[in-house]
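batch_manifest entry 22 of 60
target: Glutamate receptor
source organism: Rhododendron griersonianum
requested by: lab member K.T.
priority: normal
notes from requester: please return C-alpha cells only, no post-processing; we will run our own comparison against the previous entry in this batch. if the run fails, retry once and flag.
--- input ---
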Amino acid sequence: MQKQWLLLLLVMSCCYYNIVQLLGAQNARTGLIEVDVGLILDLDNIVGKMSRTCIYMALDDFYALHDQNHTTRIVLHTIDSKSDVVEAASAAIDLLKNFQVQAILGPQKSTQADFVIDIGKKTQVPIISQATSPTLSPSDNPYFIRGGQNGSSQVEPLAAMVKAFGWREVVLIYEDTNFGRGIGPYLTDSFLAIGTQVRSRIAMSVSATDDHILQELNKLKTLQTRVFVVHMLPSLASRFFLKVKEVGMMSKGYVWIITDVLTILLDSLDAKVINSMEGVLGVKPYVPNSNELQNFTQRWRKRFRRENPDIDRFELNVLGLWAYDSATALAMAVERSGVGRPKFKKPVSTNNSTDLVAIGYSEMGPGLLQAIKKTKFQGLSGEFHLVDGQLQQSTFRIVNVIGKGETEIGFWAREYGISKNKRLPFNKNDTNDKEDLEAIIWPGRLHVVPKGWEIPTGERKLRVGVPVKSGIDEFIKVERHPQTNAVIATGFCIAVFKEVMDHTLPYAVPYEFFPFETPDGEPAGDYNDLVYQIYLGKYDAVVGDVTILANRSNFVDFTLPFTESSVAMIVRIKDDGRKNAWIFMKPLKMNLWLTIVVFFVFTGFVVWVLEHRVNKEFRGPPSKQVGIIFWFSFSTLVFAHKEKLISNLSRFVVIVWVFVVLVLTSSYTASLTSMLTVQKLQPSVTDIRDLRKNGEYVGYHNGTFLKGLLKREEFNLPKSRNYSTFEQYDDALSRGSKNGGVAAIIHELPYAFPKGSPLVPDVSRAILNVKEGGKLTQIQRQWFGEEAECAEQDGAKTTSDSLDLVSFKGLFLVAATSLISALIISLSTFLYDNRVTLASNESSIWQKLIAMAKNFDEEEVNSYDASKKTNRANEVMVVPANCPQSPTRNNSQLAEWNFTDNDQGFTTTENSTSIHETIEIVDTIEAKD
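--- output ---
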C-alpha cells in the first residue's frame, strides 16, 4: 500500500514537471517574457479574499484583450500574510529571495505596508499598496505606489459636513495604531480651518477590553460636546459601537461620524452592529457607474462565491476595484517598460550577509517604477491617474446608516462643496449648507438636527461669575435675598444675558450666578482675576462690563459684544462757540480770508488797467481811480457794481470773478448757518498724551483693568485717582485737576461675554438677534433712560468746521489764469501800438518809460465812440437838397453848404469842410443844447 502511494506521488510529480515544461516551451515558442510579481494579502479576512479575486480577474481580462500584441505576461506568486506585520515582511523577503519578483501588490494594511515598503526601497522593487495612512508618503518612499486614495483626502468632506451643521466642537476617537494616528493632524487642521475645535482626542487600543471601552464612553458622556468622529477598522469599530448603543449614547442629541474605511466595509459588519449604528453619518469615495462596472460586478459575484462558498453576504466595494485597477496598471507598465529577461543584480560577495542583502536589487525596478507612474486609463473605480505616486480622489459620497445598510444623502466635490445629486451640475460655489443634503435620520430616529452641545445629564448648572462692585449699579448690581441669602443679580448686562439665554437661544441652558467676592462681601479681585477664574475652572462663564483684552483672550473665549468696544475718555465740554462775537469770521480760515482779499484787489486792478484808456468811468483824478479799483472789485461781493465795461477782456475777467464770488458766498453762508444752528460739543481734551504732558490728574473706575492701562501709558500713579460712581465722576471733572479733581476719566465701556466653549457662537448669534430685533434698545432705555445714547468725540481725528484754502485751490487757479491772461493780452497790445516809441534810438530808457506812461494815461477813442461820432458826421454831411436852409439840428442842414450828388439828387459845395470839423461843430451845438 505504501509503495502504491509512493508510485502515485512519483507519477504526479512527473506530470507536474511535464506540464511546467510544456507551458514554458509554449511561452518560449510564442516569445512571451514572464515577469514574476508577488501578491501579499490577508487571506484570513474577507477584504483580502475579495482583492485576490479582483486581481486575478484583472490579469485574465487584460491578457484576454491583449493576447496577440503583448510580449510580456505577469506570473503571480501569492502569499497569505495572516493579518500580521511580521508575516507580511517575511512574505516580501520570501518572494524576493525565491522568486525574484519585480513588483509586489499589497499588503493592504498600513502597518504591514510600512515594513514592506522599506524592503522594496532597498531592492528597487515597486510596492503597489492600497494602504491609506498619510504617514506613508510616496515622496519619502520612492518605490511606494499608493493604489488607493490617501486617507487625508477625506478630511475636507468631513469638515464640510461639520461646517454645514454649524458644530463648533468635535471629539476625535481613533484606534491607537499608525493607521489611526496618521489622520489625526489632518483632521484637526481641517476643523480649525472652519472654526471648529477638536475638544478631545481618544486613542483606543485595538486590544481594548469591553470594560475599557465602557470606561472611555462614560468619560465622554460627561463632556458637553456631542459630536464624535470615529476612525477605526471594522474589527475594533464593531465592538465599540455595540457599547455606544449599550450606554445610551446612540440617542437624541448625539452625532456620530465615521471615516471612509468603516463606511466602505459597512456591509461586512454583523447585522447587530449595523443596527447599533443607526443614525451615523459617513463618507466614502465616489465610484462612477458604467456598463463595464456592472458587467464586472456580475462576473465577480459568481467567481467569488465559487471560490468562497462559506461567505454568505458580501458585496464588491471600492477596495476591490482599486485592486483590479492596480493590477491592470501594473500589466500595462510591464509591457511598456520594454525590458528583456528580468533579473536581480547581486552583490559581489555574499559571505556573512543577511538574506535581504544577498538578494541584491532589481535591474528592471527603476524603469518599471517610471512606467507605472506614467500609466493613465479609465478604470472600474474611475480615472486611474497617479499624482506624486498616489491615486487621486476628488468626489465623495455622504451616507446615512439606516436600517440594515446605508442611504445616500449627498455628494461632496472639491471644486463645489456639498450637493444632493451628483448627476445635477453644481451650480453654487463652495456650497456647505445642510439644505444641500437629503433628509437625515439622526440617532434616536429623530429628524431634528442635533445642536452638537448639551449640558451633561445630571451635571450642575452653568456657573456664571458676576463682578461685585459698588457705584455704577446701572451696569451690574449683585445683592442677596435677606431671607434665603440667594444671589440676586440685576443691571443692564444681566438683563441682556437673561434675554439671550432665556428667550433667544434655541435650547434651554440652566444657569446660576456666583458673585466674585470674599467671605465678607468685598470684591475678591479685579476684572482680570474674575476672568481668570474661568481658566481655573471655578466658573463656566462671566457676565458683566468686561472688556475684550489681548491678555484675557489667552485664557477665555469672548462672545460678540453687544455695546461699543474699547475704552472711553470722559472729559469736560467747552463752552458753545455760538456765544462768540466774532463767530462770523470762523466759517473761513485765515489763509482763505487773506487769499480772497488779495484776489479782490488784484481783480479790481486788472479791470482798471483794461478799462482806463477806453472808459471815462475809470478815468479822473488819482484818488478817484484808486477808489474805483477797490469799489468795483468789492462791489461784486454783493453784485452791486454799476460801472459799464467796454473792453471784452474786462468783461471776461468779471464773468469769471463773479462766478468765484458766487461759490465763495454760498460756501460761507452754508458754513455759518451750520455753526449758528447746530450745537457743537467740543471736548476740552482730545488726546490722552496731552494729559500726561501737562501733568494732569486722571481718574478711572475702581477695580477695572484701567489702572494697568495708565501704567502702560506712563502716567504717574500719584496723578491717578479712582472713583466708583457717576456722581463722583461729575464732581471730579467739575473741580478739575488743580482743585482736587481730574482733567479726564478713563472708563471701560460695558460688555457681557459669557465664555462657554460651544456656547460662544450660539450666544453670539443670539446677541445679534437681540440687537437687530430692537430688544437691546428697550433694555438700554430701561436702565439708562431715553437719553442713553451720547455723542462721541474722536480726539485723534478731530477736524475744524472752518473752510480751508485747500478746498478752493482749483477755483482760485481758474480766476488767476483769467486775470493774468487778460493782463498779458492787454499789455501786449499796448506795447505793439507803441512800438515806434520803444524803437526810438534818440530817447533814453527813462524817457521811453515816461512817454509810455503818458500814452497809457491818454484817453483812447474806442470803437464804440468812433462809431457814434461817425453817425453824427453823416447826419451833417448827407442832407436832402430840397430841405430848408435853416441851420437847425433836426434837419442837419447848414446855410453855407449845399451837398448835392448829381446822380442821386444831392449837391456839394466848393466850400465844404472836413468831416472832423463838421463833427466838432455838431458837438458844439450839442453842448449848447
